[in-house]
Design goal:
By secondary structure, the chain is mostly helical. Helix content is about 80%, strand content about 0%. The protein has one domain: Na+/H+ antiporter like fold. The chain is globular, with a radius of gyration of 19 Å. The N and C termini lie close together (about 10 Å).
Length: about 300
C-alpha cells in the first residue's frame, strides 16, 4: 500500500512540474496542444503496442473480456440515464450537453493510464488500453451525438485513430505467436515510455492557465465534476463487490471510471457544439479535485479492497 501511494505521489509531483512550467510560460497553450497531439497520436499508441507485445496469457485474456464487458455495460447504463434526462427536460441548454459529455467520458489516457501504470506496471497499461477501445468507440460516436444531436457518427475517427489502431496491433501481437524484433521493440518501448511524463506535464500546464476564482462558479461545475470522481466510485465499488467481481478488476474499472473530465472536452465542445467555456471549467476543477480524490481511492483499494 505504501509503495502504491508513493507511486501516485510521484505522478502528482510531475504534474506539479507541469503546473510550474505552465506558470512560467515554458509550456504555453500552443506547446501544450502540440504535446497532447504528440501523446495521443504517437507515444500513447506505442505504449499500448509495447505493453501488449507479450506471450498470450489465458488469465489476462479472460480479465480483458470481463473489463471490456463491464466497461460497455456501464457506458450503456450512462447512455440510458442521459437520454432519460434529455427526454424529461425539453430543449436542454448547451451546458447540459457538456455536462453529459464530461460525465460519461473521463481522462483515461492522461490520468487513468499513469495511475494504473504506477499501481500495476505493464499489466495496468495493457488493461487500460483494452478498456480504452470501448471508451474511444463511445466517445467518437455517442459523444459527438451528445454535443450536436444531429451529426452522424464519424466511423473514420472511431476506427482509424492512432490509439485504436495501436490497440488492434497490440491485440494481434498478444493473441498470436507474432512478436516484434528487438530493433523495433526497443525504440517502440522507449518512445512509449515518454507517454506518462508528457501526459502529466500537459495536465499540469492546463491547470496553470486558469484562475481558481474563475473555475469554481456556477455550482453546476462542482456537481458535474464530483459525479465522476466521487459518485461513480461510491456506487461502483459496492455494486461490483456484490456481483463478486475480483477486487483486482474492480480497482481497474473504478480507477478508470473515476478519472476526471477529459482534457479534450473543451475542444470537442468547440468543434461539435456545446458550451466550451463551461467544459474547460469542468476539466480544470475535476482534475484539481482528483489530486485529492484519487489518492483517497488508491488508499481505499490498497487497504480494504485489494
Amino acid at each position: 500500500m505504501k509503495q502504491a501511494l508513493l507511486e501516485i505521489v510521484v505522478l502528482f509531483i510531475i504534474m506539479g512540474c507541469g503546473l510550474v512550467l505552465g506558470k512560467r510560460n515554458l509550456i504555453d497553450e500552443r506547446m501544450s496542444n502540440k504535446m497532447s497531439t504528440l501523446v495521443l497520436s504517437f507515444t500513447f499508441p506505442l505504449l499500448i503496442i509495447s505493453s501488449m507485445d507479450r506471450e498470450f496469457d489465458r488469465s489476462m485474456f479472460r480479465n480483458s473480456v470481463i473489463l471490456v464487458a463491464f466497461s460497455a455495460i456501464i457506458c450503456l447504463v450512462l447512455l440510458l440515464i442521459i437520454e432519460l434526462e434529455v427526454r424529461l427536460r425539453k430543449n436542454p441548454p448547451d451546458t447540459m450537453s457538456v455536462r453529459h459529455f464530461t460525465t460519461m467520458f473521463g481522462n483515461a489516457s492522461f490520468m487513468g493510464i499513469p495511475v494504473l501504470s504506477a499501481l500495476y506496471g505493464a499489466d495496468g497499461v495493457f488493461y487500460a488500453a483494452v478498456m480504452n477501445v470501448v471508451f474511444n468507440f463511445f466517445m467518437f460516436s455517442y459523444g459527438i451525438f451528445i454535443l450536436c444531436r444531429s451529426q452522424h457518427p464519424n466511423l473514420r475517427k472511431i476506427f482509424l485513430n492512432p490509439g485504436f489502431l495501436g490497440t488492434v496491433i497490440g491485440l494481434v501481437l498478444f493473441l498470436t505467436p507474432l512478436s516484434l524484433p528487438y530493433v523495433l521493440s526497443r525504440p517502440i518501448s522507449w518512445c512509449g515510455e515518454m507517454t506518462i511524463p508528457l501526459a502529466l506535464l500537459v495536465a499540469g500546464s492546463i491547470v496553470s492557465r486558469n484562475k481558481l476564482r474563475e473555475i469554481v462558479r456556477p455550482a453546476s461545475v462542482w456537481y458535474t465534476s464530483l459525479i465522476r470522481i466521487a459518485l461513480f466510485p461510491a456506487v461502483m465499488i459496492p455494486v461490483l463487490l456484490v456481483l463478486k467481481v475480483e477486487p483486482y478488476l474492480i480497482s481497474m474499472l473504478v480507477i478508470v471510471f473515476a478519472t476526471p473530465a477529459p482534457l479534450t472536452a473543451g475542444a470537442f465542445a468547440n468543434t461539435y457544439g456545446g458550451n466550451a467555456f463551461f467544459a474547460s471549467k469542468v476539466v480544470v476543477l475535476s482534475n484539481l479535485l482528483s489530486l485529492i480524490t484519487m489518492p483517497i481511492l488508491i488508499f481505499i483499494f490498497t487497504t480494504f479492497v485489494v
